[in-house]
Each structure stands twice: as structure tokens, then as C-alpha cells.
Amino acid sequence: MVVRFRRFLILGTFAALLSCDQTEKESKSFQDFPFTEDHWRVENEDETTGEIDTLLYKGKLALKLGPNQKAYLKNKNYKNFVLEFYCNGLSAPGFGFRLKDKQNFEYLYLRLGLSEKKDALQYLPIYNGSLPWQLYNYPKYEGQAEFPREEVATLPQGLRQELVDGKASDTLRSFLKNKRFSFSEAAEVITGDDVNYIFDPEEMKVLLFVEVNNKITFLDSRTWIHVKVEVKGDMAVFYIEDMERSAFVVEHLKRDPIAGGISLVSDAFGVYFSNVSIAELKETKEEVYQEKPSTNYVTEWKVSKMFAKDSLKFAFQLDSVIQNKNKFKTIHTDEDGLLNISRFYDDMTKTIVLSCNLESDVNREVKLEFDYADHLVLFLNSEIVFDKGMNFKPPADKGMEGRVFVNDESVMLDLKQGANRLDFMLSADNRQKFNWGIIARLADTDGLKFN
Predict the structure, then answer these.
(1) β 437-442/339-340 pair status
(2) 373 near 401, Cβ under 8 Å?
(3) What confidence tens digit (pLDDT) does each residue in 48-89 have?
């Protein structure tokens, strides 16, 4: 079965691999961690122990991680540190830091198919194993980076007609084989507005092709990428290739700033890692980053226990849940108004009700702006005013790639004078088991109190 990807392959400009100055490394007391059983434990996707597979790959002694494997650094915990390594992959290599355990840590991964794009780097706080990439978005939690690529061949003018969507022709495969890049008969040519490539699902090989000055050039999507991260307090600074100029800064890491472990994370196609070194930084008194959101954001919610949603009788379920209001607990959003439910609950097959009271001094209409993942039914005083879901593939009008931004959705709330109850019946992303959250604000809060 041929796997298709939207914006999958690596774009970018060929760059020489840079290494950090040795004097700087010595001054920061960097420690190297060779890929041996003394230092690392490899874990398979099913959490069984894997073998440490080392080899010489493209000029570097590397650890080869198979699809969805992870490597954990043994018996080392860091709070403030500098981490450097090289990685080589096809899709989304990453690393975890400040690991509390395998399900709770800080995480950054590289979207190799989005070189030079504003969301090429993704930071996520991982709670209960959830990967909430739709919730934490640019510009705070995603960054721009350019990943290197290597030119391997230029297509003769007489073969241009071979680059059409569908099965790669024997002629095209023969040409690439002569350039020392062989593809099986399962290889397919895929073209698009932003990216064109040939992909072999059997051998997990990819070549990007681009046209510049009427010449078509093939680019190898597996190149070594130099990565560095400096973590101090609640801030992280990420470097890609250029070790002197940061590519992405996260001013406020979402998890508590405590010492934790380090992990290397593969993707669905396998990743090579090399030259891992870490320097521990001294504890210093840092100013804690504080952000005060607009008072228009709903930042406090009463949340129910989890339950299995009845797709036909969910309105009756709301009445039953509300009757047990004494079992609700109070939770608070992040500073920017975002509420990641996986911070509090770990079963991504379930549904919860989030409730907020709106007290109005007069009868009025007020605009509620909001967004959600993955399915939301919105009630005002037990009446449904919104019912929509992404169901893995976001609808066409759901903003960019289903990302959660507060101005993606809106409804007018017809408030009566006095108390009004706003209920969000929010179901998790059951298929991917990644995203479960909301963000909401009122356009005008004059004459309103909400809690």
C-alpha cells in the first residue's frame, strides 16, 4: 500500500554541517554519551526493550532507531543544560527533556517536510502521553528552521515526461539507479503545489525534486542535521545548523521546571542519531515568565468526570452530568487561555463537560469566540448553540490544518438578565489520541461576570 503524505519531504538549502567550538564545549563541561548499554536503553513502540543498533552512517557513528523507537539516557537527570546532537530522518525526529516518566515530559520535534516554514519546529508539553500538536501553535510554540538537503542528480531534458503522478516508470527508476539511488517497483511519483517527490514505501526511500532555471534537480531527503537546545528555568532556546543564532525560542515551557531525563525519539520511518553531548548548567535565579491574558478569556472552568458520550442522547447526558455538579472540580487554563485537558485526564476515548457561569446585568447578546479539539457540543442554558467535530480530518473551514486558534469559531450568545450556564461537552481525539482542549473568550465583558 502506497503511503501518501501532504507536505512530507524535506525542502531547504544545502548547508555544511557545523559543530560547536571545542573551547566552548570544554568551558561548559560537556559530557559525551556513546551509544552503549552503559548509557542508553532502547525501547520499542510496544515498550519492550530493543537492541542498541550502531553503525557508520554517512560519515558518522550513529544509533539507528527503527520506526517509533525511543532511546532513554540512563541514570541522568537535568534541569538546566545544553544538549547537542545530530539527527538524520525522513519525517519527524525529536527529543524529550525533563522527563518525569515516559508519559510526561517536554518535547521538541522537527517537521522535516516544512523546511523554511514558520512551523518547521514544534514544541509540546507532554501530559499523560498526549501529543497535542493542534493546541500549541505558532508563534509561541512553533518555530521556523531551514533543514539541509543534498543534490544527487539532475534530470536530462529528455526524461521530463517521466515525472507525472503515479507509478514511477522503469525509465525513471533506471536513471536514478545509475545515480546510486535505487527504487523498487512500488515507487510512486507525487507532485503538488509546494512539494514534488518520488517515494518508495517498501524501502522507505524518498527523493525530492525541484525545478530551478529550467533544470530539474533531485535532492536526498536524508542528511545530517545539527541540533542544540539550551534549557534554563522556564525557557528553551533551539538551534538548527547555526549554533550561534537561535532558530526558535520558547519563553515559557509549560511543565514545571524540575530535573528530568533525556530521550531521543524516532518517527514512523526510522531515525539515525549521532554525537550526543550534554553540559549541565549551574542553577541561577531566573525571573519567571509571566503573561497576563486579556480578561475576556475564560480562564476558570468547572470540569466533570469523564464519561462515554452517547452520540444520539448526549443532550440527556448533559442533564444527568449537571445534576452531579458536586462532583465537578475547578481547573484553570494556561496563561494564554488555552486549556489542555490531557493535563488532567488520560483517557482519550472519553468526553467531559466544562461549565462556566455567566452573570449578566441585562438581557443582551454577546459574541463568544472559541476553538476546540476534537468534537464540541456547546450549550447555553441547556440549549445547543454549536455542534461540530474534526473527526481526524478537519473540515475545510476549520482554520489551518485543524489548529486551535481562538478566532476560528464564534457564536452569538443570547444572555438573559441574571445567571446563565455555558457548557462545553468536549470529546477527545479518539483516533490519533493526541488532541483534547479548548480556548474561549467573550468579545465584550461589560456588565458581565463569569466564573
Answers:
(1) antiparallel
(2) no
(3) 999 999 999 999 999 999 999 999 999 999 999 999 999 999
